[in-house]
Amino acid sequence: MRSAIVFVLLLGMAGLFGVLQTNRKLAVHRSQPVKGKTGTGVVAPGRDPSGKVAATKSGGRASVEAAPKKAPKKALPPRLSRPLRVAALGWELIAPGVVQNGGAQPGPSSRFSKERLQVHLMAFHKMEELEAALARGGADLAGADIAILPMPELCASAERLRALSPQVFLLLGWSSGHEAFLTARPGALSKPPRAGRVVLAAPRGTSAAFLGLFLLDLAGVGPERVTLLDPAVAFPAAPEPTRPARRPPPHYAALPRPTPSGLKLGDELKPLLTTADLHRLIPVVAIAPAGLLKQHAEALAAWGQVWMAGIEEMQRDVPAAARQVSALPQAPPALDLLTGLGQLEPASLPENARRFGLSGREPVTLEELFRRCWVLWRGSGLLSTPLPDRAPIHPDVIATMVRVYPTLVEAPPAPARASARPPASAEAAMELLVGYVPSPRPLEPSEALARIGFLAGVFERMDIKVSSRGGLGQARALVQGTLQRFELADPRRLHPAAHKKGPPLLLEVFATR
């Protein structure tokens, strides 16, 4: 009896155990991902397909899996496989690059290095040295890829550098007071000699000589009538022992400022005009061989962006920039650098676009300045070849800079220049500086407007009287047409007038006393 009861109990317990096993909910086992290995198309537990961290419930607790670390970005290669070498005609012209580079060689905080450029800087005193550096090229330790210099010096060396085909690709600034035109006679340019040779004491092939030839040409003395005399011969500091008789003094002189040492000018010579009066006549430009521009346009655009930012930064503390440059080997004292930096006016990227002729409303373009410079150098005998069909102006780098660095275009508006406007009839209160006779023959309207606009653009701070033999109405029409054709800094400086005798169109430059 007892064994039967035990058998029934065991059988019931076995049945109950089978029912419990049948209705039990099994927990899902999740495998852990293997570290360092991922499978294509497999989503790790605790992570959704987008890669975000997700919480999973296991045993009533939430577990969060850490996201894997992102791979570091691959460094971009340098823009050039070698250093970019930059040379300038004067230490003050490389000051913005020294500020941005942390020295003549790349410093630890060089902004050029951040643009993936290794820039090396050097400066020369003579144009022959700069030409030799360009001929060697940037692959040479003593060579140069880019040269910074005034445009008249570039034009004067064009025949020697013809094989390199140097191109102007960036306008960096303007000479403002570094060159002066001197004379001992009042009214020297309003009534110049109408015949015979005229002696101009000026160093050949320099911006000072170009200023002198330009002003004399405006006054009616063409370059073929001008004899260029070495200033060291015209103004010797000590008389020559073999020639006691002193030669006649030159009619005019055009010299850099301050006056070079070793010259004795005398008290009779006084500055009549400087490039501070014609502050849009002598541009300071950056040039490079045509081959380099074609192969590495974006690298030169990056260089130009950093350089122009250096000009802006230097303007905020010019003495500090002068001290930094003067600390370089063979650099002049800081005071001399301050003088040179004070005679430079920077150019912005929007002005570059205008001077390269991209706007179509600028009367003084780099192409027009190059053309006039070539004509004057050839007329004086410095050049012997005809004017090129196309000026060496390369605007593609400017277009690249505008596209890649749009913040450079957002330049602050220039401050308005306050200037008194004298009445048109009050000529007694004005001093005639230059009497400009454009042509003895009647001019086409477009040619007349171009000449008026160019003169007004160069003499931005002077008053110009536009006289027409056709009467006051025709003069007013010429002034109005010039203002519609070109964008001038101060339109009120053009004064229409009439004359009965003389050339069809007479332009005169006045200075308010």
Describe this structure in words.
By secondary structure, the chain is α/β, with parallel strands linked by helices. It is elongated, with a radius of gyration of 37 Å. Strand 15, helix 16 and strand 16 form a beta-alpha-beta unit. The protein has 16 helices and 17 strands. Helix content is 32%, strand content 19%. The strands form four sheets. A six-stranded mixed sheet has the order 4-3-5-12-6-13, sandwiched between helices. A five-stranded mixed sheet has the order 9-8-10-7-11.
Short précis:
With 513 residues, the protein is α/β, with parallel strands linked by helices. It has 16 helices and 17 strands. The chain has 3 domains: 84-174 and 283-360 and 388-409, 3-Layer(aba) Sandwich (D-Maltodextrin-Binding Protein, domain 2); 179-235 and 249-274, Periplasmic binding protein-like II (D-Maltodextrin-Binding Protein, domain 2, 3-Layer(aba) Sandwich), CATH 3.40.190; 427-512, no CATH class.
CATH class type of the largest domain: Alpha Beta
Category by helix and strand content: alpha/beta
The helix content, as a percent range, equals 25-40%
The outline comes out as: elongated
What CATH architecture of the largest domain do you see?
3-Layer(aba) Sandwich
Number of domains: 3
At CATH level 3, the topology of the largest domain is D-Maltodextrin-Binding Protein, domain 2
- Main beta sheet, described? 6 strands, mixed
Number of helices: 16
Structural Rg: 37 Å
Proportion of strand residues: 15-25%
Order of strands across the main sheet: 4-3-5-12-6-13
Distance between the termini: 145 Å
What's the number of extended β-strand segments? 17
CATH homologous superfamily caption of the largest domain: Periplasmic binding protein-like II
Uncertain segments: 34-64, 411-428
Average pLDDT across residues?
84
